[in-house]
Amino acid sequence: MPERSADSPVRALDAAYYTDPARFERERDRVFRRTWQYAGHVSQLEGAGDYFTFDVHGRSLFCVRRPDGAMAAFYNACAHRGHEVVSGSGNRRVLVCPYHSWTYELDGSLRAAPGADRVPGFDPSCISLTPVRIERVGGFMFVNLDPHAEPMESRYPGLGAALGEYLPDLDRLRPAFTRTVIERCNWKVSVENYNECYHCRVNHPTFASGVVDPDSYRIVARGRMLRHATSSATGEAMSYRIDAGAHPRALEYRSWFLWPAFSFQVYPGNVLNTYHWRAIDHRTTEVTRQWYSVGGECPGALRRLAEQDADTTLAEDIRLVESVQRGLESGGYRPAPLVIDPRGGLESEHSIAALYAWLHEAMEA
Length: 365
What we know:
Layout: H1 16-19, H2 21-30, E1 37-41, E2 50-56, E3 59-65, E4 71-75, E5 89-91, E6 95-96, E7 103-104, E8 110-112, E9 131-137, E10 140-144, H3 152-155, H4 159-166, E11 173-183, H5 187-194, H6 200-203, H7 205-210, E12 218-222, E13 225-231, E14 252-258, E15 262-267, E16 271-281, E17 284-294, H8 300-328, H9 350-364
Antiparallel strand pairs: 1-10, 2-3, 2-5, 3-4, 4-9, 6-7, 7-8, 9-10, 11-17, 12-13, 13-14, 14-15, 15-16, 16-17
Helix pairs in contact: 5-8
C-alpha cells in the first residue's frame, strides 16, 4: 500500500495490484481463504442428507444438512487417501467415499472402513472428515477456512438485524432469478466499482434516476462491511411500480457489502437481490446476480425488474470495469488521488479507501 502523511490525499493503488498474477495468488491465500465466503442458500439443503459441493479458491468443499437439522461443511477429502467423498449435489443417508468405501456419518465421523477391524490400533473414533466453519445469516450460508477467524457478527455487526428490518420474510425467501456474467477484470476493480456511486449519474441513468435518489446516497463503513443507503426515486420517475404503503421501509434502498466478495441489496419495494464475486484469476471475475422472493416464485414484475437491472446497471458496469482493466494494463496508468469528501455523499470515494485498508490488513496479517 502506498505510504502517505496525515495531511496528504489517499492515492489510488498502483496498476500492479490489479495486473500481477503473483499478487493475485497471494490474495487467494491471505484474503479469500481467511475470510467469510458465500457457500449457498439453505434452499439447497431442504432435508436431512441433502448436500452440495462448491469451491473456495482451489479448496474443494461440501455442505450437508445433518439429521438434527443443522448445516455442516467439510473439506471434500476422504481421511483415508484423499479421494473426494461426494460430487455435485444430492442426498445421502451416509457419506460413502467411492474409492475404498470408507463410510462417514452426516456429522463427518467415521462409521466404517472395510478391513479396518484387522488393523491393530485402528480407532475409528479418532477419524473424521475435516470440518469447516459455517454460519448463517437468514437463509444464506457462509464458510471460513480459517478456524480462528472472528465470527460473522464481529466482522459484519448488526447485519442480520438490519436485513430483518427491511425483509420481514427473510427466512421464507428463495432464489427466483439468477444471472451469472464474466467480467474481464481483476476482482478488486469490480468490487471497487460496486462500492462507490461517484460514477452513477453519468453511467447508470436508469438506476440513478429511476430506482434511487442519488442526492441522498451515503456509504458508511462498519466492521468489514460497507452499508449503502438512499431513498427511492420519486413519483413518475420510478422505473417500476412499488406499493409504498406495504412496508415502513418500502421507499428506501439499502446495500450491505461484506468484505471481500458478497453483497446484499434491498431495492425499493423491499426486493432482495445479491451479488457474489468469484475471482477466477488476476484479470477474470465471475459475478452472480440473484433475486429472491417468498417461495422462489418469479412473477412478471420481479422478472422485469431483474431484466431491467441486467440490461442497464449490470451491462453498464461490465463495460466500465473492463475498460478500467485495459487502462490499468496499458502501461501508462499513474495513480491519482481519490476524491474523498469529509461529508460523505455521492461524490466521495471514502469507501474505496476503506477497501484499501482492509486489503492492506489482510495482506500484512
